[in-house]
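Attaching the record inline, Q. Sequence:
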Amino acid sequence: MVKIIKDFFERRRVRKLFSKYVSPSVVDDLLSGKINSPKAGEFNEKMLGVVLILVEYSTPKVVAKNIGMIFDLAKEHEATYEATTNGLIVFSFGKFRSERNSEASRRAFVEALRAKSERSVKIVRGTGTGQVGLVGNEQLMSNTLLMPKFGDALQSLSSLNYGETKETAFS
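Structure, as predicted:
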């Protein structure tokens, strides 16, 4: 009986924590065991969609508002958050879901982003075969993706004007 109660509270804690960052269906998959992560250093090859977004700097308040809007849209479209640095935000699609569903989600995410961003972002989107897995050690691990030609995508992003979007291949 004690184990059942502990499991209940653990599931509730996980649901509360993860529902802030990912859609309810991903949380359900996580709790049901449909999502299995490899051990640190083990990678699985997977077809992924990737979206790189560069937010135009104006004022910290405006940037924070734009990034908040982007994260709201990402959650709505079941994107997986990868990284943020200096206004660059990276999301992936297909890391935990089927490729067919992730492609439609990726396209819908980019279209919604273009409609709401008011020319304050640059977007590079694309697909390719990448490696998904855990990096780090027992104290600090991160579930990450490794994509070929990521540097080329960053270069494409820098050549765009704000409000523009470019499709690229990551393989």
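Residues 99-116 form the longest helix (18 residues). The helical segments are 2-18, 24-32, 60-76, 99-116, 150-159.

More tomorrow.
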